[in-house]
Amino acid sequence: MKRPNSLPFGLEKEELNRRLEQRLDDLAKKTKFYLRKDVSLKEIAAALVTNRTYASRMINEVKGCKFNEYVNMLRLERADELFHTPDYMNTHSIRDLAEACGFASVSTFRRAFAKKYDRTPLNYVKRNGFKG
Predict the structure, then answer these.
(1) What is the tens place of the pLDDT at every residue in 70-115?
(2) Pick from 125, 126, 81: which is nearest to 101 by CA?
(3) How wide is the angle at C-alpha 29 spanned by C-alphas 88 and 93, nearest 5°?
(4) Residue 51 in contact with residue 45, Cβ under 8 Å?
(5) Going by C-beta distance under 8 Å and a sequence separation of 6 or more, which residues neighbour residue 96?
């Protein structure tokens, strides 16, 4: 008899989420899928060997955000790495940075950056003494 909280393959929700999160983290490290502008939840769910519903629910519950917000968070982590790469911002523009991190547009990058850091990328660049 199936218990009320059980999911396919006999896994409880928490265990399924834990396994999917581990696969997602491994996938992000190995493939850096978030650097592609066209990455989709459907594609990631397939790579995790699950469906979009389970993948989306896990990201919402475990990562605490929607899929697009999660992808943007990974992209912003990459931007932070590039900001701290010697001379990167002295030789690249904000547009270059946004593209290198997988953002489809500078405005999307600017909004995500400002939401996380409470300042625009240009203000960050200027405050840290880069050419911008």
Answers:
(1) 999 999 999 999 988 888 988 999 999 999 999 999 999 999 999 9
(2) 81
(3) 20
(4) yes
(5) none
Task: Return the half-sphere exposure (C-beta side, CA atoms, 13 A cut-off) of residue 104.
Answer: 7
φ, ψ of residue 82 to 5 degrees: the values are -70, -40
pLDDT for position 9: 59
Please name the residues in contact with 120: beta carbons below 8 A apart, sequence gap of 6 or more. 110, 113, 114
The domain 71-127 belongs to what CATH superfamily? Homeodomain-like (1.10.10.60)
**What whole-number percentage of the chain has pLDDT above 90?**
74
Which residues fall within 8 angstroms of residue 92, CB to CB, at 6 or more apart? 82, 100
Pairwise CA distance, residues 103 & 3, whole Å: 43
Residue 4 has pLDDT above 50, yes or no: no
Query: What is the number of other CB atoms lying within 10 angstroms of the CB of residue 51?
Result: 14
**CA-based torsion, 58, 60, 61, 62: positive or negative:** positive
Residues in a beta bridge with 12? 6
Q: Which of 116, 88, 87, 112 is nearest to 102 (CA)?
A: 112
